[in-house]
């Protein structure tokens, strides 16, 4: 029977991030409201953490642990029980401090007498150099004599990580603050691992999420629930939420979408997924959602759904329905809304002392997109065939700043993280000029390409408009490999662009890669030397090395012969399809080299070892770098 009226509840499932709402539900809720549809939203990722990491939550953890045989308790779990009273007394104040509601607690935290300190605090024990004025204290290096709030936030984050370790060792080995139960979903050809996990009795984490789901249903009384799963680490919890919804009221319609679905479930044929949900939609959700709403209201047949998987009740087989209709133009999707999300309860954590690296976990940023898709869309490692990359569409600077002003009015927050694949230089220039024309003061950061359009003049304009940081892909710092991967930049160009940002007072983070097809040990050593010189010259302040993964949607995955590799055959797939193994004739052990790269990078971000030979970071003998000693400084002089 068609629904006479519809209330839509969009849910962020565990886990995404704790310092700010993941933006997908804000976009969908804002869009639906702009079309006159009753729409609300909930962040159950944050709610789950706030419930587990509370005085009551820790008491529930202790109750479970005390029911375990003593021989099954790890030393960390035993220490938690022994010092439970201290944890119970400190957890609520620490959470209030991390939420910015009790700043004076910083002084007690910094005393090192207030918090119980577990193994995570071992990272603070370092060799004391008698010539080091800080006495070898990494917190003194990072925060100096002042910086009490940041020092306390870092200590409180270590405390939270200790408690997460207890939860993982005693109750749920899959628990993570970000990648929760990720292995159950990521590139899983079969639904079996998820089906088995969902069939097991609920543990404390599951029970808590179940109760939170029922409370959200009671609060909002929806008849359509949208579950947004941006990452593999949100799939298990999303399906647990769907399970709870169907147990409470089978008539509630549940739809699944988001980045993970758009990337990995494009060839979905697993009917068991539909034991928990009713629809799966692909790519930008606005158009499929409008079609689904019309279907539920009896205004559209099921055959006219857009980019939607359904399970055929008669045959038991999954069908993909895609009635040809254009997407909603990017400048017509409306303004995201955070209404209904507890924006004052998010947690500002400080995992990494590096000032650029902390932006991902510290501070509540309004997430916004300058343009849909990527204007470059040529990089051979990227999923350039998928809609979120291939369909490039921008909004005018006027529309963007209108959205920015509306969001500031709603949230009271003027910090923005532009979450584009790569924000276009032309659009950023227009945005900066419009912000200045309106005399609107904001702080913003986002992802770019290190291309020559970012001149010193443009970088200064962006800084004047409120830009505090940029992130961008240097990938493998090798001109040969950058050309092979069609990155469209060179190492010396990256040096000049990043230097221009730094000189304008903008922090720079470089995404780095290793293990790209045909990458040799010499390439790897040379790349690290380039990175060392970039840090040494002050061009970049932060970075992250990730292992190259070949995906079926990338040019490497679709034309491997052009990159000198052979793909391994995939197993029979009914669920997730994304990663694909390959044989590289170079035969390099990239995993072993990756340990050295990450060790070096961690030290470089803390200003350590920048004047030393890069070969010192490798456990095995590696060739001498073939990079000219002053390559980066010469590139900057030629600017």
UniProtKB/TrEMBL annotation:
Its cofactor is [4Fe-4S] cluster. Gene3D superfamilies: tm_1862 like domain (3.80.30.20). PROSITE patterns: B12_BINDING, RADICAL_SAM. Residues 360-576 form the Radical SAM core domain. It holds the Pfam family Radical_SAM. It comes from the Bacteria. The keyword Protease does not apply. One of its GO terms (cellular component) is cytosol. GO terms for molecular function: catalytic activity; cobalamin binding; iron-sulfur cluster binding; metal ion binding. SMART domains: Elp3. The keyword Iron applies. Keywords: Iron, Iron-sulfur, Metal-binding, S-adenosyl-L-methionine. Residues 139-303 form the B12-binding domain. This is Radical SAM protein.
């Amino acid at each position: 029977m068609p629904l006479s009226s519809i209330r839509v509840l969009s849910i962020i499932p565990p886990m995404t991030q704790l310092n700010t709402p993941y933006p997908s539900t804000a976009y969908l809720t804002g869009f639906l409201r702009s079309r006159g549809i009753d729409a609300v939203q909930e962040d159950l990722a944050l709610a789950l953490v706030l419930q587990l990491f509370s005085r009551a939550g820790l008491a529930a953890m202790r109750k479970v642990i005390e029911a375990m045989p003593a021989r099954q308790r790890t030393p960390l779990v035993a220490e938690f029980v022994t010092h439970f009273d201290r944890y119970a007394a400190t957890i609520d104040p620490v959470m209030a401090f991390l939420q910015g509601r009790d700043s004076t607690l910083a002084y007690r935290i910094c005393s090192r007498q207030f918090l119980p300190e577990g193994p995570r605090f071992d990272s603070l024990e370092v060799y004391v150099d008698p010539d080091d004025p800080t006495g070898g204290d990494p917190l003194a290096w990072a925060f100096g004599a002042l910086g009490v709030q940041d020092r306390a936030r870092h200590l409180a984050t270590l405390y939270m990580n200790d408690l997460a370790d207890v939860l993982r060792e005693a109750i749920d080995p899959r628990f993570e603050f970000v990648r929760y139960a990720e292995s159950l979903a990521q590139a899983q050809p079969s639904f079996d691992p998820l089906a088995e996990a969902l069939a097991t009795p609920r543990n404390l984490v599951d029970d808590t999420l179940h109760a939170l789901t029922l409370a959200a249903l009671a609060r909002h009384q929806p008849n359509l629930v949208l579950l947004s799963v941006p990452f593999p680490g949100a799939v298990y919890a999303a399906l647990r939420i769907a399970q709870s919804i169907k147990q409470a009221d089978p008539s509630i319609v549940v739809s699944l979408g988001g980045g993970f679905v758009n990337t990995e479930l494009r060839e979905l044929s697993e009917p068991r997924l539909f034991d928990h949900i009713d629809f799966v939609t692909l790519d930008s959700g606005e158009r499929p959602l409008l079609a689904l709403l019309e279907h539920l209201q009896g205004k559209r047949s099921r055959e006219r759904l857009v980019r939607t998987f359904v399970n055929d009740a008669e045959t038991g087989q999954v069908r993909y329905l895609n009635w040809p209709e254009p997407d909603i133009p990017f400048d017509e999707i409306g303004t995201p809304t955070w209404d209904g999300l507890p924006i004052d309860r998010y947690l500002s954590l400080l995992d990494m002392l590096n000032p650029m690296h902390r932006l991902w976990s510290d501070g509540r940023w309004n997430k916004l997109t300058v343009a849909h898709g990527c204007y470059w869309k040529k990089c051979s490692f990227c999923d350039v065939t998928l809609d979120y990359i291939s369909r490039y569409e921008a909004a005018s600077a006027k529309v963007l700043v209108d959205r920015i002003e509306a969001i500031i009015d709603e949230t009271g927050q003027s910090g923005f993280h532009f979450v584009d694949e790569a924000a276009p230089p032309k659009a950023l220039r227009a945005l900066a000029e419009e912000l200045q024309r309106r005399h609107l003061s904001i702080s913003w950061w986002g992802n770019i390409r290190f291309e020559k359009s970012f001149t010193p003049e443009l970088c200064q304009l962006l800084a004047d408009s409120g830009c505090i940081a940029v992130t961008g892909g240097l990938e493998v710092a090798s001109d040969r490999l950058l050309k092979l991967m069609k990155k469209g930049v060179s190492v010396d160009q990256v040096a000049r662009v990043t230097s221009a940002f730094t000189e304008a007072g903008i922090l720079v983070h470089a995404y780095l890669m290793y293990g790209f097809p045909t990458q040799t040990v010499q390439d790897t050593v040379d790349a690290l030397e380039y990175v060392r010189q970039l840090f040494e010259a002050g061009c970049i302040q932060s970075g992250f090395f990730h292992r190259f993964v070949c995906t079926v949607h990338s040019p490497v995955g679709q034309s491997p012969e052009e990159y000198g590799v052979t793909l391994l055959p995939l197993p029979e797939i009914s669920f997730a399809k994304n990663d694909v193994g390959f044989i590289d004739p170079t035969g390099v052990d990239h995993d072993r080299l990756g340990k050295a790269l990450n060790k070096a990078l961690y030290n470089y971000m803390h200003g350590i070892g920048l004047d030393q030979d890069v070969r010192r970071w490798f456990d095995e003998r590696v060739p001498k770098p073939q990079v000219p000693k002053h390559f980066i400084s010469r590139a900057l002089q030629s600017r």
